[in-house]
Amino acid sequence: MSESIAEYIRKHAVRFEDKSDLDTIINSIGDARYVLLGEASHGTSEFYTIRAELSKRLIQEKGFSFIAVEGDWPSCYRVNRYIKSYYAKPPQLEFLLKHSFTRWPSWMWANKEILDFITWLKKHNDEQAIQKKVGFYGIDMYSLFESMEEIIRYLEKKDPSRLESAKKAFSCFQPFEKDEQEYAISAGYLSESCEEEVIKLLLDIQSKRESYEDDLEGGLSLELNALVAAHAEHYYRSMVKGDTETWNIRDRHMTEAVEKLMDFHGPEAKAIIWEHNTHIGDARATDMAEEGMVNVGQLIRESHIPKDVYALGFGTHRGSVIAGDAWGAPYKKISVPPASDDSWEGVFHAAGTHDQIMLLKEHHERFQDVKGHRAIGVVYNPRYEHLGNYVPTSLSNRYDAFIFINHSNALHPL
């Protein structure tokens, strides 16, 4: 009788009991320049703390340049300014996180786990020369109106000669009163689009980037905010066409943002990317591919040689999570029921009711089968889990390694 996958995991998985066991992952990453760290849910404490520990070691031991997260550029750039001591009068960190991350779900970044990690990053950067300070950036693209405001604010201070052209470009959006949904309806159904205006502004900013040499990172922020405005406009205009189109716009934007950050940090740059498993795990190893969807993990793998890219997925069998009942609803702590027995989480649990690390690259053949892999978003109802929370996944084709947390705990919002 052939050995079951649970028996194989029992023999070959690394028991994950303390931080030193992460040596296994650090060694497996090798010389990769793009390290993608996932999460099976947005509201699980262990995913944040383990990613933070891995990121600290990648920064200290392998010289990684920046962390790019699934957050808005303007909000995260305020954190970047804090950890690099750009503020003349630095705000108190808890105040900064609470007041920077105001777009729902604010708890994704305004939480104790992030506060502890940002505290560490600030202390680390205080001991580095300016060119060695590690960055913290948001690569998502929901902040259409906030990014436009940041562009106006920057030009008012740094380049008043171009201020009027920017205001003229953004005047197209004024009738929508900072409501992305209103714009989506108007652009999608009534063809009242501001596409031409934002594309022209983006191209103008990109063509004059060298004029900001006295403020290189401020110029980078200007360009990224313009990129967000252009892609967010496209995203909201496409909402009426369905999930596949908007998903691809978003993940292509996040990939382009990462590459611009890599270019900015130079030829030796190395990126740590924090996003949900559905973004960092190769879409071609799931049913997303059948629906015509791509993601960050796939796009980065396609653009670089295999040894330069390393994707780490996460999973949990049971526990608790922070999420909402509906989009925009207040967060609450929700119990996560035991995973389905025939899912990847169920198989790892059957192999041992403890936390585990599996290096999938080294055991590729045994993890190619397709099984359900649980994914929990910012909206979650465990009663309906079986209807859409399991992504059919070939685990070793989706990730290079996998961390299994048998019993996980909810995030701690500030």
UniProtKB/TrEMBL annotation:
Q: What Pfam families would the database entry show?
A: Erythro_esteras
Matching CDD domains, A to Z?
A: Ere-like
InterPro entries recorded for this chain? Answer: Emycin_Estase, Hydrolase/PRTase-associated, UCP036794_erythomycin
Protein name, entry field: Erythromycin esterase family protein
Q: Which organism is it from?
A: Fictibacillus barbaricus
